[in-house]
Amino acid sequence: MIITRFTCEMLGAIPVGELQVSARLARPGRSVEFLEAVARAGGRDVARASAWRVLRTSSDPVPPRGGPPPLPEAASGAPPDGWIDGYLSAIEWRPVRGHFTEPGPATAWARLRYPLVADEETSPLERVLAVADSGNGLSGELDITRWHFINPELTVHLHREAAGEWICLDAQTAISAGGAGLATSVLSDQAGQIGVGAQSLLISPRRPGPRPAEPAGG
Question: pLDDT digit string (tens) for 32-82?
Fold first, then answer.
């Protein structure tokens, strides 16, 4: 089977420490299945995930029109000033247009520098999801030193598995009055488009004071 839709609900701060993870097949089936998982820390749920997977068949492919831009030869430089780094350096970024330091839509190729779990091969799905959560950070429309644009969830739809190490993220963000936003991303590998990602956003001004650590998602 192949995962065609993945959603992660982030219920709170996830500590750097021991987590308890449980997973179950919530809806078994011959052609379609539904899976659920929960991560817990300190006796509370910190994240929940769900996914649909469908049976692999012998259907003929009908690829989306168009394709991703070529993979640039040069990687991006150091993380932006003021960012407390970790995630950004764990991934090799090759920008095509825009950058984390520039407001507006952006496109970048990315690959993990390290395995997600030590001594284990990173799966195609893991490579995609590790990058897909960066859509709102890559295409941020506001100054991250003055504004939060936090995504409490990530949803990714896929129509095939990724091939190779490199994933292209073509992202844009829409923000409306009232504190809500939406970041959307087209996801591709070097053979073409593989799916799309979306993140609902909470938009709020930062409180004055020392800036907390944040991942690329903003």
Answer: 999 999 999 999 999 999 999 999 888 777 777 778 898 998 776 666 665
Tell me how far apart the alpha carbons of residues 201 and 171 are, in angstroms, rounded to a whole number: 14
Structural domains of the chain in order of their starting residue, each with its CATH number: 1-56 (3.10.129.10), 75-218 (2.40.160.210)
> How far is it, in rounded angstroms, from Cα 18 to Cα 176?
38
H or E element, residue 130:
helix 124-132
Q: Cα dist. 147→141, 163, 213, 217 in Å?
A: 10, 36, 13, 13
Residue 89's region, left for phi above 0, alpha for psi from -120 to 50, else beta, is alpha
Give CA 148 to chain center in angstroms: 17
Per-residue pLDDT tens for 107-142?
999 999 999 888 999 999 999 999 999 999 999 998
